[in-house]
Design goal:
Elements: H1 4-26, E1 30-31, H2 41-52, H3 69-86, E2 93-98, H4 105-113, E3 119-124, H5 127-136, E4 141-147, E5 166-172, E6 174-175, E7 180-181, E8 193-196, E9 211-217, E10 228-233, H6 250-255, H7 265-281, H8 283-304, E11 308-310, E12 321-326, H9 332-341, E13 344-345, E14 356-359, H10 366-383
Parallel strand pairs: 1-13, 3-4, 3-5, 5-8, 8-9
Antiparallel strand pairs: 2-10, 6-7, 9-10, 11-12, 12-14
Helix pairs in contact: 2-7, 3-7, 4-5, 7-8, 8-10
Length: about 375
Amino acid sequence: MISFPLFLHLTHLSTLVYIFHIKQSEMKKHNFSAGPAILPQEVFAQAASAIRDFEGMGLSILEISHRSKEFTAVMEEAQALVLELANLDADDYAVLFLGGGASSQFFMVPMNLMDEGQSAAYINTGAWATKAIKEAKLFGHVSVVASSEDDAFTYIPKGWSVPTDARYVHITTNNTIRGTQYHALPDTGDAPLVADMSSDIFSRPLDFSRFGLFYAGAQKNLGPAGVTLVVVRKDLVGQVRRQLPTMLNYQTHIDKGSMFNTPPVFPIYTLMLTLRWIKSQGGLTAMEVRNREKATLFYSELDRNPLFRGTAVAEDRSWMNATFVLERPELEQAFLQACEAAGCVGLKGHRSVGGFRASMYNAMELESVQTLVDVMRDFAEKHA
């Protein structure tokens, strides 16, 4: 039988443990995950409300008809906001919301833009570009005109030229795994520029009119997983002779306004809310200021701190995905534990490369980056 004093002691101890877990759950989480990633808090709140009751309909956004006037308005606003933020004209560009993730565009792009016997140029800057190259080879000749594979994809190749017969030039604007990013768009001459922008879409102003097509999985900067944004110049569509499956033909989705079949309704709605938020913050110019400030704060600490080292070439470092390692690898687990104790989660590097990765997408606040910087500084003081 447990004595009464011991019973009180155990009761007190269990209460403290309970309070500790409550405090841990209440602690603000700073989510540095590469994706699915954080969204603005107001977007989470609005999306959650719409799950219960959308637009006062007494129905959830999850159950309304995609043909209803209420969702048609969502689709049209989302398309209009994409064009507005990118400063593109609806007469020239079509905005599509498709399924299949950005990986589906690895084959849809060459299938729609390159005939058998024709060529396309690709710049290989990492795992996702490598996958895109593999798929494109199924539909025509692929010329890999530049690659950074010789140095583990730690830089962006420069000084390459475009083959005269290239139907398009494909780049991946940001490498989530290796932490590199194009900070200026390459000159591709008369060849349309095609880009996978999944991890830095709408993070800064660009001359989007230089793209023939760009695409992005939503789950980094735009919304939840489940919808892929494709923006394509209309004159590039319908030029190939091959027979295209209906669902894989861009023209199908242009003609039907991305509603040939039931689209991913909730992800599109959440994406629309995120685009509203970007516009309300001041558009892409404001996103650039926001993201530059976070990147400067983090990389300044990384370069100052003797215990950590960045893995990407400095001039090509990504604002979205900062990759780094410890000079003393045996401390990796201790560092991750220190991060989690401060509420910083999702920092473990990609399984293929190890180390650490801090993803700092649009919705991340400067406060979160400052918290991580403080952990790095404190950790170095204890272990350097």
